[in-house]
Design goal:
Bound molecules: flavin-adenine dinucleotide
Number of domains: 2
Largest sheet: 7 strands, mixed
CATH topology of the largest domain: FAD/NAD(P)-binding domain
Order of helices and strands: EHEHEEEEEHEEEHHEEEH
Number of helices: 6
Structural class: alpha/beta
CATH class of the largest domain: Alpha Beta
Length: about 300
């Protein structure tokens, strides 16, 4: 019979690592399962020139400041470095190269991996992210389009678009950033938007916008308590056009997801399956839930709930 855990975290991206931090702090017997070979989540797959839209001072996971000057905006590679360093420093129990294929539940959860192993646990925190479920809407007449359509998750650098005519669909951070860099290579670049792009200045009165969001409480405002999934300040922050579909990690847990593949949850606690938790969902508990700066407080909340149930 395999070892019995209090909690198994699926995914060692920022959400899974933040969970690891609070589980460790509260003395839980847990393990993190990660299908990749390193604890960097989906960051290595994001486009080459990505820079965080929050400065280092607002881009940390719990217990370890981002090792850059406060007002520097970290690059993708600096985030990857930070996540790896965070996992190493905290010495989290992570099993790499382990992909959860399906989950069975009776009194306990049984996690079946693609290698045929079975892990047993009382609780699951699903931190699988949404990067592997990019959403491309069906475009009317799209079949007749002779060009190429790619999702932002496949975009790496602008060179591939030299002298081409390109339409970037979206008006959030990623769309605007990608559009701006493509426009330096393409012959024509158009941003297709439903509403005008509202550019929020990165600095107001000498301070980064995240300072002000913190001061007015916007970043942590509990929209979820009012039944609102996410509050967006007019498209300033993009969630990458991804849907929070989690079919992958949770295949087999009856009732966990709705017909469209969305988690049935409130504040990260499954509404239908006791013992099942989520981290990293967009708008889970605040506007910042799916960002590096916001996931730590959600992890604290979820682990506090586990603790209250007398575990750990
Ligand atoms: C283009 C883009 C730009 C962004 N820019 C910013 C930004 O500037 N600032 C910011 O704070 N946020 C940004 N984000 C949002 C967010 O911070 C990232 O998407 C982040 O990677 C989410 O972290 P996560 O841990 O929730 O998920 P992920 O990083 O996706 O990590 C999930 C992990 O789970 C693993 N996994 C998945 N399924 C399984 C399974 N079945 N079994 C085992 N392991 C599994 C994956 O291998 C992965 O390592 C951006 C997102 C995108 C897409």
């Amino acid at each position: 019979m395999s070892e019995l855990y209090d909690v198994i975290v699926i995914g060692a991206g920022q959400a899974g690592l933040a969970a690891g931090y609070h589980l460790k702090k509260n003395g839980f017997h847990y393990v993190v399962l990660e299908s990749n070979t390193e604890p960097a989540g989906s960051w290595p797959q994001y486009y080459d020139n990505l820079r965080l839209f929050s400065p280092a001072s607002y881009s940390s996971l719990p217990g370890m400041p981002f090792p850059l000057k406060a007002d520097i905006y970290p690059t993708r590679d600096e985030v990857i470095f930070y996540l790896k360093m965070y996992a190493k420093h905290n010495n989290f129990p992570i099993h790499f190269n382990v992909r959860v294929d399906r989950v069975e539940k009776n009194e306990l959860f049984y996690l079946h991996t693609t290698d045929g192993e079975v892990y047993r646990t009382k609780n699951i925190i699903c931190a699988t992210g949404s990067f592997n479920q990019p959403f491309v809407p069906k475009l009317e007449g799209g079949e007749d389009f002779k060009g190429t359509i790619i999702h932002s998750s496949q975009y790496r650098k602008p060179d591939a678009f030299r002298k081409q005519r390109v339409i970037v669909v979206g008006r959030g951070n990623s769309a605007v950033q990608i559009g701006a860099e493509i426009s330096e290579r393409a012959s024509v670049t158009t941003l297709a938007v439903l509403q005008p792009v509202q550019l929020v200045p990165q600095r107001l009165l000498g301070k980064d916008v995240h300072f002000w969001m913190k001061i007015i409480g916007y970043d942590a405002f509990p929209f979820w308590r009012f039944g609102v999934t996410v509050g967006s300040p007019g498209g300033a922050i993009d969630v990458g056009g991804f849907k929070n579909k989690l079919r992958d990690g949770l295949h087999g847990v009856e009732g966990a997801l709705d017909d469209r593949g969305y988690a049935v949850q409130k504040g990260g606690l499954s509404s239908t399956v006791p013992g099942l938790y989520y981290l990293g969902l967009s708008g889970q508990r605040s506007f910042a839930s799916a960002t590096i700066r916001g996931v730590g407080s959600d992890a604290k909340y979820v682990v506090k709930h586990l603790k209250r149930r007398g575990l750990g």
